[in-house]
Amino acid sequence: MQAQRAMSIEQVDLTLGAFVKCGQSTATVGYRDASTGSVIASIEIPAQVIERAVLESASVEITLLGDGEIASAVAGPASDCISARTSVSIDHLVDALVTSHNLHKEEATEAELRTLLGRLRKSVEAVERTIRLLGGKAK
Predict the structure, then answer these.
(1) pLDDT digits (tens, 9 = 90+) for 110-138
(2) Cβ–Cβ under 8 Å, residues 106 and 98
(3) What is the CB neighbour count within 10 angstroms for residue 132?
(4) What is the number of other CB atoms lying within 10 angstroms of the CB of residue 98?
(5) Residue 116: is it exposed, middle or buried by C-beta count within 10 angstroms (0-12/13-18/19+)?
(6) What is the side-by-side order of every strand in the sheet holding 39-46?
(7) Contact, 58 vs 75, CB < 8 A?
């Protein structure tokens, strides 16, 4: 008859903490022992996979406000945990577009800038027309 060996099981107390390490093309996610810093388990995920999963059910909403601010927000399941709302005034947006550095980068032509100018003039006319209409109603 074989004698049974008593195996001692040592109890180990681990305090696990989740971690994420982001690189240019990959992210490493996993758990480490908080007391020693030793990685217990991890996996490397391509950044494209994460971006695709986050953006899959997200939508971008852009709104032109009455005071000339352009507000944008990301709506979707992931937007609850990140600050995804930004705004910029329309004049700052145009100023940023027409800087010489940006024009060179975007390779904007004179014809495109003339088209932009025409559209901005139409926008000004529409705002002036609306102001006149509102002014007529206030009387």
Answers:
(1) 999 999 999 999 999 999 999 999 987 75
(2) no
(3) 10
(4) 13
(5) middle
(6) 16-22, 26-33, 39-46
(7) yes
User: Which residues are bridge partners to 20 per DSSP?
Assistant: 29
Whether the model clears a pTM of 0.85, i.e. scores above it, the answer is no
Length of the chain in residues, anyone? Answer: 139
Return the structure tokens found at 35.
């007391």
Q: 32, 16 in Cβ contact below 8 A?
A: yes
**For 72-117, how does the pLDDT look when each residue is reduced to its tens digit (9 = 90+)?**
988 776 555 555 678 999 999 999 888 888 887 778 889 999 999 9
Reported as type and span, the H/E element at residue 52 is helix 47-55
Q: Where is 59: in which H helix or E strand?
A: strand 59-64
Cβ neighbors of 25 (< 8 A, separation 6 or more) are: 46, 47
Residue type, 40: I
The two structure tokens encoding residue 40: 């217990």
Judge whether 16 and 34 are in contact, CB under 8 Å.
yes
Can you read off the two tokens belonging to residue 136?
């007529």
